Structures
1.
Amino acid sequence: MGGNQSVPKITPRDRAILDMKLQRDKLKQYQKNIQRVLNREHEIAKQHLANGNRDRALIALRQRKYQETLLAKTDAQLEQLEQLVSTIEFSLVEISVLHGLKTGSEVLKQINKEMCLEDVEKLMDETQEARAYQEEISNMLANNLTPDDEEAVQEEFRQLQALAAPDAEPERITKLPNVPDTEPVRVETPEPYVHEPVRERVPVLA
Amino acid sequence: MALSTHTTPTGFLLPSIHSAPPFFTQQPNPATQATVTEQWTKLILSYARFRRLFTLRVEDAETSGGDWDEVSRNPRINRRLLPSYLEYIISQLVAKGLAVYEPAKQTRSVQLYWRLPEEWAEVLHEWASSTGQLNTIMTFYEIVEPPLPSELSNLPISLLKKAIGILAKTARAQIIAVADGEGVRFLAGTSGR
């Protein structure tokens, strides 16, 4: 099962915290007890008064006062204890934060080691060289076309541009009305209409 | 003779069968007795759940003024549950695993499991995570008497220990002992193994 591995070890620190918390609980129970005695003395005092025993009533009330002071003292001690407990718990939290930061920084250092600067520089240089080589080749290939071919290519390009832009619109304007006159065709037919003339003319020129 | 339900002063709704005189007598016919016992079991457990009572004793039928009076007695039909009958019902509860004799080796007093220890274990762990107290050392006192009332207030320590034991088996709790007493630390763990 190996369940024990996931359970953290109980350190002496843990035991100390538990001890303090048990003390705190004892104080709280003591307080509860005193509160109970207080209430009871109050009742007793009232009873005595009802029976007409003023002295007894006074005694009971004095008792009650004394208990109240005890209660106040216990309160103060309880506060101190609780503060100590929370300070300790907080410092445990701080320790774990520090531990986390340390681990994180270690990991970062390791990663940085793998990415050494010189390697990166070398890589960038190699990429730059390869790119430059590629460009040279493209230029050489580009320059293999004679000036005449280059001129023809440019002319074709201009024709295409001219056809694609202005002709497209007048074509559509004249063609669209035709569509309803002929058969009940879908809107798809204008599109072949627009493209076909372009294709036809290119072979003619060549 | 229409039987009616009745709401007790504490706000618990007693089932109509509680107003039937035969409910309070042990039945000779085994089949009827089984049904009646079933009804008593349900009634006892739901009353315990309602008022968060954990102990049931034969004594509760013998004397009055206890927590169980509203159930063990019905003054309107002038009937009450006899101690011998209660002892029988208690033994049936134990047989079904819905209660255990506590303290052990006697048959007069039981601890009721209107929630099984396994369920209490889940509630316990749930409470610890939702109040952000995982990985914190806690005392038993802190758990059963928290400053803010919770599901676990006033849980008997023995039941708390059983629940913690169950959590410890799945590595979700760790018991720590010092000279003065014991504490527990809840861990996130994984549900299951």
2.
Amino acid sequence: MNTLRQIIAVTAVNLRAIPSRLGSSMVIVIGIAGVVGVLVALLSMAAGFKATLAGTGTHERAIVLRGGSTDELGSVITREQAAIITDTPGIARDADGTPQAIAEFYLLTDVAKPGADTPSNVVVRGTRVDVGRVRPEFRIVAGRMFTPGVREVVVGRAVAAQFETLRIGNTVDVRDGPWTIVGVFETGGDVHESELWVDAGALETASRRTAYNSVTVRLESAAAFATFKDALTTDPRMVVSAQREPDYYASRSEQLHLLIRILGYTVAVIMGIGAVFGALNVMYAAVATRAVEIATLRALGFGGLPVVVSVMIESLLLALAGGLVGAVVAYVFFNGYTVNTLNFQTFSQVAFAFRVTPELIRQGLAWALTMGLIGGLFPAIRAARLPIVEALRTG
Amino acid sequence: MAQTVVSLRGVSKRYTRGRQTIEVLHNLDLDIDKGDFLALMGPSGSGKTTLLNLIGGLDRPSAGELRVGDARLDQMSSAQLTRWRAQHVGFVFQFYNLLPVLSAERNVELPLLLTPLSAAERMKRVRIALQIVGLADRGKHKPAELSGGQAQRVAIARAIVADPTLLVCDEPTGDLDRKTADEVLGLLQLLNREHGKTIVMVTHDPKAAEFATHTLHLDKGRLVEQAAHA
Ligand SMILES: Nc1ncnc2c1ncn2[C@@H]1O[C@H](COP(=O)(O)OP(=O)(O)OP(=O)(O)O)[C@@H](O)[C@H]1O
Ligand SMILES: [Mg+2]
């Protein structure tokens, strides 16, 4: 109890002196705000990217690729295989008994980006006009759907926002010459909104392809996935793999997600070292200017521990203030900020929004407190070890 | 028969700086009785502050026996000394050493934070201490709003508020003009005479020494003379 009272008293004295050393105290606040701001911004980028990909698909849908393929681009599904897959047990059916399955082409095309030297890769998905049977979230938000057999394109909302050239009425080179853009679609904010959708039949002719890249099926229920997968993988006529959609998209986001996070932590560690040195400097200086005060308190009978704790509290509070400033700045400037990035696995464009989540803010504040802890600890120990007699002489 | 409060037997203090060891106090024997007001004089560098710091439990002797009250200070750890100081010594410094961010009242209260007293009891004692030094009306003032003499009187209130065994003052009037110094010395004399405080005071000023009951001279770390006033 006595120690607690001492801690409160010494801390109150310290904190009241902050206004008289406001400038140097701000070094801690601003330094740590910078680290936390950058860290939270970069991690929110990783989180947003992952959320966009992981938010694609539902557990009631599965995607079938060639066995061993990690993504649609490297996968080949022949017509015969597609027919067998479509007939597998576990797939939901329309009232008339038609399986809710869709075989699609997946390829990349160059789209010029204003102001950029090199064109960007954009995904082209060869699908069917009745794609809504398998992806009910699909909705035309401007213009109209493409016409089967015609070289027409509907563009995802996100990719339309990123490329000025992708306007209704414009043309885009998909394969074998220009295709006309006739509509804009959305799919609930998932990764498909970064794609161009065309009629599979028209694309087949233009690209002279004979095999599909993937088959996407709607399951009778989420639980029917096991039945579906077992039936497919034990079929001796082909080697294919089936994944639930969210698992598939989450795995595709992993590499870039990891890369951004590593980048974020690396930058934060480097900046953090700088901020910790700044904090150490400021706190050492604070202890030095208060040496006589500390020595006086120690002479009066105050213990070393309250001195240590009070210096730590001061450093932690300044760090926490910095952390909050950094997190708020990151939130205000980056939350919801939409960017385009390359998905390194497919080298195609994916548009996503930064997400400053409560978890990231917690993480940022934990970093701030860690920096404050390190920055305060050594000065605090020095303060407690201060030779009382010598400090009093200098007074 | 007078009761001995401070007793030194063969006390030496050495400082080691690098390879060099200098002995600042040589083999001192000294007794201070309860109720004494001792003035310690001597040239600069003679070891007055060093001796005072030993008696006040801020530092430990290199050799010899040092008792204050029932405590053997030479045998205590620094944590024990810290606790001992809180209960038994009041310090008065040349430059007052008040905490600038705290009001006079809060400065005086500091030593009481080391006791189990309640906030109300603490405030009561703070008021009494400020009354004794004649500053009952200055409790809310910050040190910067006080004159040198007032600040030193607040420091004296802080030194006596926890009713210590011993008051230890290092040149308490070294920074004050004659008139103010005499007032502060008069206050110390009052504390000694009326309140029975045992006081050890270092001073350069022979006039200040006249307020004491005894004067002791230090020269190059040795006690050279002991004279009693009236
Ligand atoms: N920490 C230390 N290390 C080495 N030498 C010291 C230390 N502290 C004091 N001294 C030396 O001890 C001697 C006595 O110092 P002290 O401060 O006790 O003198 P003083 O009588 O109080 O002098 P003044 O009247 O100037 O205050 C001086 O020579 C001083 O340089
Ligand atoms: Mg001295």
